[in-house]
TrEMBL record:
Superkingdom of this protein's organism: Bacteria
Pfam name, any one: TctA
Taxonomic lineage of the native organism: Bacteria, Bacillati, Actinomycetota, Actinomycetes, Micrococcales
Keyword Transmembrane found: yes
Transmembrane segments: 20-39, 45-73, 109-132, 138-158, 165-184, 204-224, 321-340, 360-380, 387-408, 414-430, 437-454, 466-489
Protein name in UniProt: DUF112 domain-containing protein
Positions of the DUF112 domain: 20-442
Keyword Transmembrane helix: yes
Keywords, alphabetical: Membrane, Transmembrane, Transmembrane helix
């Protein structure tokens, strides 16, 4: 009960008028910035770092937490409405969410996302309060071999889950890995695949690729393909944001399953919320295929509910990992770690003793932020849905401008703007030829993690590859990986019709 009494003290601090203001400000800014393609919670936190010099640490981190949680919902909002997710963690929500929007259920889709974000974030916040001291012991069991096995599992799972063509999924993954290895080798210090260009020595930014492939590629697709289709018309959302009892009954199990999938990934540095959202989507898709009347591909609520709950569950747990271990799980958490150091604070077990007031006020603010996001987003779901009424030429022109502004604000480089244009054309070609974009993003996110841990494991074992299969966690991960591949192959062959080519 000691944790509960400390949490109550944290609420007394977090619920002051000043801190409530910063919670609202953070949630609103996070949602608003997340709605804009190319601008996500990580960029919002980075841009707010200079501003926080005038704030006390508690107020600053309460605002950062609001931005973190609000950014996830904002990212999903644009993905649902316009199929241009702000960050990779929102990609899975677009598959069924955008289909719902095209059928006039944009407001209901946003309501499903808001409730899913609330459930995932609230449950993860409860667990963080009571389980934070145990996070260090659990995460300490992961070494280089375990992290490499986890990355490999994510590669295979993502390539087979989000597309019906394993070949296209693998090719997309390889392209992402190719982008990830460009730049200076961290071990030898030699340039790799830079073509002699100093601008590529720092590598290709994930933000650049995400914006180019997801946002700019979609703009090119809309301009070149959709505009020539006679059936193209503006999508008009239907009135009403309320979910029916049938909708709630359909979404409830997916919210809980997505939360369960997202929680463990908040402690493992495996790319933040990207992987669990795809895995949650994949689980729901597999379960849906067992139904007599499968709904995926036609705007299935479960395909949206699970990724949203998984994403926020991961975010909540990742904040716990940052506070208890000093372990940044995502780009936003890494920026927040820099903010802690800016104030002379070092996240970790000692932070709970030395800055208990800040820690427990911040943990209490997680619960407040969940309620605030629900208040902000549920009543205004129809207002966000009205973005669909903006004429497509103006809307996509605006998206293009924000893409360019977002990239230039991040890098201050014209070279990156040209790179966005080139990679955007690649994204357009992938879109036209039905190549999945998710494996590409996952390859970029986890490629460096997989490479670093593979090399660390081999260096520690003097080149003995058997170290990659040593340990119960590694064996379990590879066993689950084999089962996943076998089930995927079995489903491919069982799903064939007699008229399909072998």
């Amino acid at each position: 009960m000691d944790a509960l009494s400390l949490l109550m003290e944290g609420f007394s601090n977090a619920l002051t008028l000043e801190n409530l203001f910063w919670v609202f400000a953070g949630c609103f800014l996070g949602t608003a910035v997340g709605v804009l393609p190319g601008l996500g919670s990580s960029m919002a936190v980075a841009l707010l770092l200079p501003v926080t010099f005038a704030l006390e640490p508690t107020a600053a981190f309460i605002m950062f937490a609001g931005v973190y949680f609000g950014g996830l919902f904002g990212d999903s909002t644009m993905g649902i409405l316009m199929n241009t997710p702000g960050q990779a963690s929102a990609i899975a929500s677009t598959f069924e969410g955008h289909t719902m929007a095209k059928k006039g259920r944009a407001a209901q889709a946003l309501a499903v996302a808001a409730i899913g974000a609330f459930i995932g974030g609230f449950i993860s916040s409860v667990l963080v309060v009571f389980l934070a001291p145990k996070l260090a012991d659990w995460s300490a069991n992961f070494g280089p071999a375990e992290f490499f096995a986890l990355a490999l599992f994510a590669f295979v799972a993502t390539s087979s889950v989000v597309t019906d063509s394993a070949v296209k999924g693998v090719l997309s993954l390889l392209l992402g890995l190719a982008f990830a290895v460009v730049g200076i080798d961290g071990v030898t210090g030699t340039p790799r695949f830079t073509l002699g260009s100093p601008e590529l020595f720092d590598g290709i930014s994930l933000v650049t690729v995400t914006v180019a492939v997801l946002a700019l590629g979609e703009v090119f697709y809309q301009a070149c393909i959709r505009s020539h289709k006679s059936e193209h018309r503006m999508i008009r959302p239907k009135k009403g944001t309320y979910l029916s009892k049938a909708d709630l009954k359909e979404a409830a199990p997916a919210w809980l399953r997505g939360t369960a999938i997202g929680l463990p990934f908040g402690v493992i540095p495996a790319g933040g919320a990207d992987i669990p959202t795809f895995l949650a989507y994949g689980v729901e898709r597999k379960l849906d295929s067992l139904r007599k009347n499968p709904r995926f591909g036609r705007g299935a609520i479960r395909g949206l509910a699970a990724p949203e709950a998984a994403g926020n569950a991961t975010t909540g747990m990742s904040m716990g990992a940052l506070l208890a271990l000093g372990l940044p799980i995502s780009a936003t958490a890494a920026i927040m770690l820099a903010a802690f150091k800016q104030y002379g604070l070092q996240p970790g077990p000692l932070l709970f003793d030395r800055s208990a007031d800040l820690v427990w006020a911040l943990l209490a603010s997680f619960f407040v932020a969940m309620v605030v996001l629900l208040i902000i987003n549920l009543p205004f779901a129809l207002l966000w849905a009205k973005l669909l009424l903006i004429p497509a030429p103006y809307l996509y022109a605006g998206i293009t401008v924000f893409c360019a502004l977002g990239i230039y604000a991040t890098s201050n480089s014209t070279f990156d703007l040209l790179m966005v244009l080139g990679i955007g054309f690649v994204g357009f070609l992938m879109r036209v030829n039905d190549y999945p974009l998710a494996p590409l993003i996952i390859g970029m996110v986890l490629g460096p993690l997989a490479e670093t841990n593979l090399r660390d494991a081999l260096i520690a074992s003097s080149g003995d590859f058997s170290v990659l299969f040593d340990g119960p966690i590694v064996i379990t991960l590879y066993a689950v990986l084999v089962i996943t591949v076998v089930v995927a192959v079995r489903n491919k062959f069982w799903g064939r019709t007699p008229t399909e080519p072998k």
